[in-house]
């Protein structure tokens, strides 16, 4: 046990029912982000509805709406995380759900693209659902089980990524995109109610040091405690690169899908998909939903697998191996010439990309000082939002200069390089290494009835 273990040993009985708690946090994340995925994959089409018709301008405004959200979240996430360590992580989780629900509902009544941009900026300042949820889970779960818990939590995000775009695509195609925003806001309201009623925070917030009471010194001290850990800083930088692999490509994915319209025997306004035993010519919105859906499905499988794989080969090796393979798979994505191959290769990317973030979150939780999980995941959310800020603009610029296919080739190179460079800089956390080295506890199988 480490030097922090006396406290940890005393705190172990403070986690009764942590699995039940995890289940309701998962439900809150899933229901809320299901709504978010109902609308955000279709932002390019909503921007067209707001009066922007030129494809280059649509790509620009799509990137800008995503980037302003990343900017505001980058600035505020570390503050919210440090406040969570001071005043409670459940309160910050509720703040994220309520803030996102209100601002997304207001987007449904936006009348211009500038109003949409402003609302996306405001949403970033008050949202950050996954970061708040991860901090809440990490602080209320036994440390040896943190990898399993965070992997399970991530499946809520991926399941929402899988079902939300498919449902949203069908609603947007048949009822309209504005109605999707209102439905999304109602789902966030339901998620807020679930979290308020059923989530229990067992780990007490960290009291502020005497010199920090009444000011910001306690917040700064919490953040400093995290950044003093070299491994935590390296893993946070890696997390930025892994999130960049998502934010860099996803804004241009609808434009890639639009390029497949009228090909492979499909009508000019349809996209053709061929799967074993099933073929379809679908609208671009529905096709976009299917791509995001297959990524969500395969990512969910990967998130469930990351804990047992990490326990067997180490979380460091699991994360970096997944990054390497995902980078290699982006190469055939760039070369895809039919929507069917584009769809299948992105599904394969999700199978490895889905393991990267939950595995990295487990490394962050195990590498951060005890009682500073809120600050650590606040910084993690800032890395995610910084990727959301940089990725869409960089991806849009790359597409404008070199073409859409170059976006996938560039991110392939980034992931492969990151997997190679970062490996010697990260060590497997002791809590995971010790659990892997420990001999399995044999189960008693009495021959008689008990």
What does this structure look like?
The chain is mostly helical and 450 residues long. Helices cover 75% and strands 2% of the residues. It has 18 helices and two strands. Strands 1-2 form a two-stranded antiparallel ribbon. It is globular. The two termini are 35 Å apart.
Strand-helix topology:
Blueprint: H1 5-11, H2 18-39, H3 43-49, H4 55-87, H5 89-107, H6 113-126, H7 129-139, H8 146-174, H9 177-198, H10 217-227, H11 230-247, H12 253-259, E1 271-275, E2 278-282, H13 284-313, H14 315-335, H15 339-367, H16 373-402, H17 404-422, H18 430-437
Antiparallel strand pairs: 1-2
Helix pairs in contact: 2-7, 2-8, 2-9, 3-4, 4-5, 4-6, 4-10, 4-16, 5-6, 5-7, 5-9, 7-8, 7-16, 8-9, 8-13, 8-15, 11-15, 11-16, 11-17, 12-13, 13-14, 13-15, 13-18, 14-15, 14-17, 16-17
CATH homologous superfamily assignment: MFS general substrate transporter like domains
**Terminal-residue CA separation:** 35 Å
CATH architecture: Up-down Bundle
Q: Show unreliable segments.
A: 1-13, 210-215, 446-450
- Count of helix runs: 18
Number of domain units: 1
Count of β-strands: 2
């Amino acid at each position: 046990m480490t030097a922090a273990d006396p406290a940890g040993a005393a705190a172990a009985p403070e986690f009764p029912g942590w699995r039940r708690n995890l289940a309701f946090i998962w439900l809150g994340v899933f229901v809320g982000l299901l709504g978010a995925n109902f609308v955000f994959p279709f932002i390019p089409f909503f921007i067209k509805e707001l009066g922007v018709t030129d494809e280059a301008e649509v790509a620009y405004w799509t990137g800008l709406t995503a980037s302003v959200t990343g900017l505001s979240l980058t600035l505020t996430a570390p503050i919210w995380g440090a406040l969570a360590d001071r005043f409670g992580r459940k309160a910050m989780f509720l703040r994220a759900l309520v803030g996102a629900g209100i601002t997304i509902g207001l987007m449904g009544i936006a009348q211009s693209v500038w109003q949409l941009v402003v609302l996306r900026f405001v949403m970033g300042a008050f949202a950050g659902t996954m970061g708040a949820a991860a901090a809440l889970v990490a602080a209320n779960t036994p440390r040896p089980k943190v990898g399993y818990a965070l992997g399970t939590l991530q499946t809520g995000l991926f399941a929402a990524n899988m079902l939300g775009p498919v449902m949203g695509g069908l609603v947007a195609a048949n009822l309209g995109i504005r109605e999707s925003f209102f439905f999304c806001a109602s789902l966030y309201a339901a998620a807020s109610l679930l979290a308020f009623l059923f989530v229990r925070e067992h780990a007490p917030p960290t009291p502020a040091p005497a010199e920090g009471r009444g000011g910001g010194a306690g917040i700064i001290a919490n953040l400093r405690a995290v950044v003093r850990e070299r491994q935590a800083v390296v893993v946070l930088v890696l997390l930025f690169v892994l999130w960049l692999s998502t934010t860099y490509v996803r804004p241009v994915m609808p434009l890639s899908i639009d390029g497949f319209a009228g090909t492979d025997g499909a009508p000019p306004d349809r996209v053709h998909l061929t799967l074993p035993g099933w073929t379809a010519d679908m609208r671009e919105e529905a096709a976009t939903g299917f791509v995001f859906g297959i990524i969500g499905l395969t990512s969910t499988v990967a998130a469930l697998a990351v804990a047992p794989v990490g326990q067997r080969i180490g979380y460091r090796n699991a994360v970096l191996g997944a990054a390497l393979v995902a980078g290699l798979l982006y190469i055939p994505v760039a070369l895809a010439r039919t929507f069917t191959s584009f769809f299948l290769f992105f599904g394969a990317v999700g199978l490895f990309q889905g393991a990267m973030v939950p595995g990295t979150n487990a490394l962050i939780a195990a590498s951060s000082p005890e009682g500073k999980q809120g600050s650590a995941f606040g910084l993690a959310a800032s890395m995610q939002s910084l990727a959301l800020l940089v990725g869409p603009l960089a991806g849009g610029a790359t597409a404008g200069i070199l073409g859409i296919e170059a976006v996938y080739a560039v991110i392939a190179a980034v992931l492969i390089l990151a997997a190679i460079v970062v490996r010697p800089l990260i060590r497997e956390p002791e809590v995971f290494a010790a659990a892997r080295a420990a001999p399995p506890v044999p189960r008693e199988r009495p021959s008689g009835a008990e």
